[in-house]
Amino acid sequence: MFAFAYHRPATLIEAQAALAASEEAKPLAGGQTLIPTLKQRLASPSDLVDLGGIPALRGITVVQDLLVIGAMVRHVEVATSPIVATHLPALAALAGLIGDPAVRNRGTLGGSVANNDPSADYPAACLALDAVIVTDRRELPAGDFFTGLFETALQPGEIVTAVRFPLGGEATYEKFPNPASRYAMAGVFVRRGEGGIRVAVTGASQGGVFRWGAAEAALAAGFSPAALDGLRPEAEEMIADIHGSGAYRAQLVAVMARRAVARLAAAR
Amino acid sequence: MEFSGSHRINAPRAVVWAALNDPEVLRRCTPGCEEVVRVSPTEFTARMVLKIGPMKVSFAGNVTLTELDPPASCRIVGEGQGGVAGFAKGSSLVRLDEEGEETVLTYQTEAKVGGKIAQLGARLIDGTVKKLVGEFFTAFATVVAPQAAAEPVAGEA
């Protein structure tokens, strides 16, 4: 590692001040991406502002028809929370599939959405559920928050404080994990509710998480796995790397989507 | 990796060609570029900061214009060293075609990224490089013809 100043503020206001003090300051959530990056010296921030000591960023609550999860809530807490299991079981199941136990014990919801890794699981849930990302400055629908590969609408120094998930309807997540990293090779989150059918895909596209409009339209006409026959995203737009070609990922997306729809249809 | 794209620029070919040889234009159009210095009529040194997610790596390198056929085409060759992070190198064959008062810029790019940055970011590098090169030519088209924002004609992987 290299030298940097470590801050552990107890309030959001102190955290904002610490981040504003240097252009090269970075917020630290669970550190499951940032710490390995620092160890490899692929980033060298002057200051790390650890958000782990701020009580306002914690907690899982239901407020009317919204499930509100604090940004610093760890994956294991979402996976095992009775509140999440009751109100949004698909999200609890998704959290239980992230990485391995070490990652789930440290990694956080806020860290995951702020990083917007194209293979992360939470962005698919946020997009399919039409969640609202709450920051210390504003509130953004997930569709406006995720703007591309590792890119979000976050401004320098802006801190994600919570995510609000609308309740109601039915949802499920199907994921084909890379066997080594457990990152999604393709992950498809399907929600069926009052606002219609939403299908969000992670792990596959070069542009990061996206809504699969063609699948949504097909499912609106008839909600069954057969409605998706022959549909798959454009292979050229999918990630091609040592783990799989674009065509392979496009096929995985189609298969994961059919499985998700089959499971939702069977559960009725 | 190899990819290509093209842009229609609302400026005569001679103007576009001159801009392609202007270090200040190159600096303004390259994402994360901090400095471009001309060391000879066809050679430049450059510094840029590459940001991919949590990574932020400074590259120092050089850019050479070869296969010059003014004002119709040239090849832009670049390579950069990012210290412990790795290296990046590549080239773009750029062709300028006159269409009335306008110019159609077509590029074919091949690029290679190696070292630690490529190992850690293997699933991200291709998409990122394509995006950066696309941003460069989009910005270039806008800088050269500032009155009318250029429209991308087509881009394909």
Automatic annotation (TrEMBL), chain A:
Boundaries of every FAD-binding PCMH-type domain copy: 1-170
**InterPro entries in alphabetical order:** CO_DH_flav_C, CO_DH_flav_C_dom_sf, Diverse_Substr_Oxidored, FAD-bd_PCMH, FAD-bd_PCMH-like_sf, FAD-bd_PCMH_sub1, FAD-bd_PCMH_sub2, Mopterin_DH_FAD-bd
Flavoprotein in keyword set: yes
Against Pfam families, the record matches this protein to:
FAD_binding_5 (PF00941)
The answer to whether the entry has keyword Flavoprotein is yes
UniProt keyword annotations, A-Z: FAD, Flavoprotein, Oxidoreductase
Q: What is this protein called?
A: FAD binding domain-containing protein
Q: Which organism is it from?
A: Ancylobacter oerskovii
From TrEMBL, chain B:
Q: Which Pfam families match?
A: COXG
Record SUPFAM superfamilies = Bet v1-like
Q: So which domain of life are we looking at?
A: Bacteria
Protein name per its UniProtKB record: CoxG family protein
* Native organism: Ancylobacter oerskovii
